[in-house]
Amino acid sequence: MSQVEAIKAEAETGPTPEAERKRGWVGYLLLLPGALWLAVFFVVPLFSLVSTSLYDPAGSLETGYQMTGYVANYTTVLEDYSEQFIRSMVYAGLATLICIVLGYPLAYAIAFKAGRWKNLMLVAVIAPFFTSFLIRTISWQLLLADQGWIVETLKFLHILGPDGHLLATPVAVVTGITYNFLPFMVLPLYASLEKIDPRLMEAGADLYASPFTTFRKITLPLSMPGLVGGTLLTFIPAAGDYINAQLLGNTQTQMVGNVIQKLFDGGSYPEAAALSVTLMVVIVVMVLLYVRRAGTEDLL
Amino acid sequence: MTRVGRWIGEHLVLGIGLLVLLYMFVPIAIVIGMSFNEPASRNSYSFNQFTLHNWANPCEPIGMCDSVVLSIQIGLLATLFATALGTLMAFALVRHRFRGRSVANVFTFLPMASPEIVMGSSLLALFVAGGLAGQLGFGTILVAHILFCLSFVVVTVKARLAGLDPRLEQAAMDLYANEWQTFWRVTFPLVFPGILSAALLSFSLSFDDFIITNLNAGQEVTFPMFVWGAAQRGIPPQINVVGTVMFLVALGLVLAGEVGSRRRARA
């Protein structure tokens, strides 16, 4: 709901012009409490995370950790868990691609074809997400189960072998991730498609462009900010997720999130922290490269 | 092109869009259906027999209703704090001019762009470094929830504020309203739907969070943590009752909001 409202508002008007803004210290005062909260509980913890990642792994929560600048934590986790790390990136990347394939037509349909059903369709996009993430994912267990109709149908169509199954496979994990993060793709895409003046597309058609050329030369470039935003909002949480891998996968589909959680549970805080820092750094680097390539730096 | 061909061309995208929407609702149908299921045994999770037992005895699974109550308490408190702090920040970012505004903008956006597992582990690292390892619980969950709700509140309220016509406020000032009156009579009522949306979003984010909570909860069990535990042991059908109620309540609120805004638009 709120996302719908926000996106509609943003689509309808631009930012406040500079001259309308008030000067003076009131701005700082309004900002202060929230900014302090973010500083103390978001920025400072990132430093604690980095420093935890450099503790001597010989310590424990009970005996305390020695700060020894133990960089070897990083080499240890990279040697031990590079497989899960790469798998996270691959699964998240695949899920993001499928989200684009599914989400683009949906966002396009809402923006240009839905007419008076637009608001209802927007509500429908987020409505499934009113139930809990975990409960939704557990429903996928049932849907993808060996006796379920999806497996039966795929077997009937010989897409799946007679003893094939879906649950506890990479396919199930990617399906779950795709499902759970699809609205994060659809809403930003819708927001930028909505801003496109339909007359631009008519002009394309008037100038004898085929629908495909019109799409490629007009619609797609103009929807780039939404596509980039949606990709980031899908890929980033997907890469850190471990719920889908745990509930829909098996031991061979563990992602980096599973490992971090398991290391924390086992009390190996320095290794867990080192893996978290690595994940954050890799994601930041990937985002910067991607945004630069997509030429939408002003988004950030 | 034939007429049929053109009709298909016109409606193809809409058709695909509706199919995608259908796909999004399939798991919800499962949740609602399973809330009426009488499981054959404790470990079987497939539809067996229709019953109203789960709806009549929602609190049967030990600890489930306690976890729902805890999640509601945390959700309400986190919503209150995050909405208050975030609304102030949004006003500062949209309506005021000061040094470092663009830095502050990026800064409020960052938590939304970090994976939950990283946010959760860094908070845990902070609490452990602060000697709170033994005191993880209600307080630490609340701190974490306010944090991740805050950015969403800022973004939502900011969008609403940016969409506000500044001429309305100028008109009020022209009619001799002072700043205070202009704010309470014009600005605030117009921004209020955005604040309300932000609060609803905060509550649903808080109620649903698992990854960050799981790292910082100590011995407390929120509803998502209860579901997680149940998923390892065997899922009581009452979980789907809670899921269905959540879905219906949220849907009801959103539809009421839509109807309300339509009525306002017509008036």
TrEMBL record, chain A:
The chain crosses the membrane at residues 25-47, 89-108, 120-144, 164-191, 218-239, 272-291. InterPro entries: MetI-like, MetI-like_sf. It comes from the Bacteria. Residues 85-290 form the ABC transmembrane type-1 domain. It is a multi-pass membrane protein. One of its GO terms (biological process) is transmembrane transport. Its main location: membrane. It is found in: Cell membrane. Keywords: Cell membrane, Membrane, Transmembrane, Transmembrane helix, Transport. One of its GO terms (cellular component) is plasma membrane. It holds the Pfam family BPD_transp_1. PANTHER family: INNER MEMBRANE ABC TRANSPORTER PERMEASE PROTEIN YDCU-RELATED, INNER MEMBRANE ABC TRANSPORTER PERMEASE PROTEIN YDCU-RELATED-RELATED. Belongs to the binding-protein-dependent transport system permease family. CysTW subfamily. This is ABC transporter permease. It comes from Nocardioides guangzhouensis.
Automatic annotation (TrEMBL), chain B:
It is found in: Cell membrane. PROSITE patterns: ABC_TM1. SUPFAM superfamilies: MetI-like. GO terms for cellular component: plasma membrane. Pfam families: BPD_transp_1. Residues 68-257 form the ABC transmembrane type-1 domain. The chain crosses the membrane at residues 12-36, 70-94, 106-130, 136-161, 182-205, 235-256. One of its GO terms (biological process) is transmembrane transport. Keywords: Cell membrane, Membrane, Transmembrane, Transmembrane helix, Transport. It is a multi-pass membrane protein. InterPro entries: Bact_Polyamine_Transport (IPR051789), MetI-like (IPR000515), MetI-like_sf (IPR035906). Belongs to the binding-protein-dependent transport system permease family. CysTW subfamily. This is ABC transporter permease. It comes from Nocardioides guangzhouensis.
